[in-house]
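Suppose a classmate hands you a notebook page containing two proteins, each written out with its sequence and a corresponding row of structure tokens. How would you begin to make sense of it? This section walks through that situation. The first entry is reproduced here exactly as it would appear on such a page.
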Amino acid sequence: MTSSHGRGRLHLAAALDLRSAYDADPYVAAARLAERGALDFVTLGDGFARPGPDALAVLSRVAPATHRVGLVPTVTVTHTEPFHVQAAVATLDWVSRGRAGWRIEVSTTEGEARLFGRRHAAPAEALWQEAGEVADVAARLWDSWEDDAETRDVATGRFVDRDKLHHVDFTGSAFSVRGPSIVPRPPQGHPVRVVDATGEPARAVAARYADVALVRTAHPAEAAAARAELRASAAAHGRDPDDLRVLAALDVDLADGEYAADPGHGGGGPRTTPRGPLYRGGPVDLAELIAAWHRDGTVDGFHLTPAQPGRDLERLVNGTVPLLQHRGLFRTFYPGSTLRDHLGLTRPANQYAVAGGTS
């Protein structure tokens, strides 16, 4: 577990975003490369105004072609139906045998709202409140099937124990859901929830619901402050703060370190750019940066987005990761089979079974 003081297990994740790639093969190849480096998980971005294939569908295709790496698509929860969202994420967890997560995102623009025609755009605060409600109801729907609800009794023709299915009867600010789900409880119980907690409205949702919070900053002091704030807020919501992983999110340009190095970290990075924090340097200097931030307890790990997907992911896996492994800072193999195993998170108890609730 990661303690509030000192150093816990280092976690590493990478983005698989590929420009203008619609065939599954390059995504499979990139995910396999990340798996070879024993990365905790890979992400795939998505959005209503973003051209490209559906991220959740792509990673459902990647799932049977990989064995251990976690798979985390961006899932926009504005304008979509929470019941369908949770069923799709649960399905990804089933087809990956417990390696699914979902990066919760909202849609803020009027142009995106017009794609659906149901309502106008809303302020970020209201949208993130709704996103928190979606995270809440998703967990309830995943728990609406007890783990042993499936009986598969051919002799009697009963395949489900109806006493172990539960209505959730949830009413939120913009939707209501009765339940139960149409998909049995996922292998992980709850697929891992990831939230970019850089902005304040999202940070509140991350503290209450996320298993992994991403913080985009080039400054270690800001990252450390965000981690401390998230952990304190999680505790205020009655959570164990050790159940929350906070990762620094950086774009990385591993162009062989041909740039002049700054003392200690190399490459003149990370730096603040209009697109966000960017690390520019070589794989060795990146290993030094990761080791320093983790040693100081700044963050629990890093989510890295390659500037050039093919080149930079390969240099991360074949250059930076072995250096971290050699120093005993990062795993050389996966100790378990699920994304929760990789992150050191326990499988949550079923809230209805624990409470002894009835359908």
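The notebook's second entry, a different protein, reads as follows.
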Amino acid sequence: MENSANRFLERLVRGVVGLAGLGVLLGLGIVDLQLGLARPSVILLAVIAATVTWRLTGRALGAWALALGSVVLLATMSPSVTVHEALPFGLTVAAVTLLVIGLAAWRAEAVRAALAVPLLLAGMVLQPLQLSTARITPVVSLALALAGVIACATGMWARMLQTGRRRQAIAEQLAQRTSIASDLHDYVAHHVTGIVVLAQAAQSVAAKQPQAVLPALERIEAAGDEAMTAIRRMVALLHEPGSQVRMTPMGTITDIASLADHFTSGDDVKVRLRIDGDFDDVPIDVQSAVHRVVMEALTNVRRHAEGVRALEILVGREARPDAVTVEVSNDGIGRVGHSSGGGYGLAGLRERAVALGGSFTAGPRTPEGWTVRARIPAGGPR
């Protein structure tokens, strides 16, 4: 809906600018007729050339500008008087030539624009010298040369501005896709780790407690479905060409309760969850970061902790300064803080927290265990 409105507005602006330019050319044509500088047929051809130039882009515009430049320069340098009479110097022709120079420098294919602009500039500057011997003629040619340089510089500035915006858009897309890839790694790793733990638990109790296998299989199926949903959603975003749609964060503070309910790292692990405060006005990116801290901490417990008996998840909101705090602690033994390279895991969480104006720490606690702690301003980065 927004893209359609933007396209309509762009077309409206282009239409208004085109009509205004056409009005200016017609006004210059009237002046040419009054001063006897050009015939009606030449003015009509100039208006047609301007209309065609305005609608073209890329290679077509470059070829068109190159053809016009060649014709103007050949007609100017020709010794035939009849050719000069067919293409006399006038304000309308000069204005159209400046328009073609500017648009070619802006929107034409680079190589053809580099060839066409000098031809157009030379034809426009030399034409007054060829058609008149008055003393004012060099002044007119100098003024046209200055105007041509300004038109060319304006077009090149517009081209660089457009190129810069295009590069910025590409960089934003790459950053977005990198973020999606990181999310894909973290979410799928979380679910797959849970599946592995559940499968191992089912194997260990299959002989002694067969009735416990079916619930474990049901939880494995649910975790697999969630992982496949995350994969499909993120891969679809990665495959969208030129997509500017930002992926909605998959987790909020409310969803942390679901993470705690589905956590599995042993039959005797006691999970304690406490969420204090009102988080309705907290931005979604802050809530997603808090959710990711809990999810990564639980994934690391599954992977690296041994002998975990108690797990505590605390989420709260500080009043002064306004910030959301999250802490995940366990009493296990092992390298719980280990994370793979590549910018994921705890390193990725630290980068996200810092980007939001907060802090992140992870390390062993006394006498044993591991604690992951983050503090993020409730309003995001300032």
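A careful reader of the second entry would note: The beta strands are 270-275, 310-318, 323-330, 359-364, 370-377.
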